[in-house]
Amino acid sequence: MSAQTLTEYKERKDSLETFYYIIEGDTIPREFIDLEEVVLLNKLEFTSKEDRRRYLILRRKTRKVYPYAKMAAERLQVMNARLETIEKKGDRKKYTKRVQKYIEGEFSETLKKFTRTEGQILVKLIYRQTGQTAFELVKQLRSGWRAFWYNTTASMFDISLKEEYKPFDVKEDYLIEDILERSFQASLLERRAPAFDIDFLDLKSHWNDQ
Prior knowledge:
Strands 1-2-3 form a 3-stranded antiparallel beta sheet, with no helix packed on it. It is mainly alpha-helical and 210 residues long. The relative contact order is 0.11. It is built from 7 helices and 3 strands, in the order E-E-E-H-H-H-H-H-H-H. The termini are far apart. Mean pLDDT is 77; it is low at 1-24 and 27-35. 57% of the residues lie in helices and 11% in strands.
């Protein structure tokens, strides 16, 4: 069949693509679903029972606090978008205080029940989701977030609000990312893209080479 007698075009609706082959005037549809990329994860292997125990503890704590980091990032995104539309400084201050009270209502009682390690994981995941440390957020939004963080988190757990999330440099952060990826794929946690690019295959290869 010559190239002149075969053409192809497509229509796209949401994630369903329909391709049409036109062969000498006849239209033949061909449909397929455009699926998201899935990272195949190997079965976990541990060098000792103690390593396995530590991983399982980290998994439990990560799954517990991640939804709050995700929620905080979403609230912050909405707040920042809204602040951009408010011109008067006084109105911006009132809006920030109102959001802070709302966030406290959602988070405070739960955060007070977190352990120190859970609080530190939360701070790391806040960085993963926002690209800013909790300290930077406090400094940026001091009218509301300072009291919130220091009253419910740092003062209770003696944790570092300057902690960043570095899965390529810190082994625990890599394990947290592994836990998140496995939890996303198992639909145990709702995936939300991090504030910065994390290529899990590159990350996995990096630590396998260590």
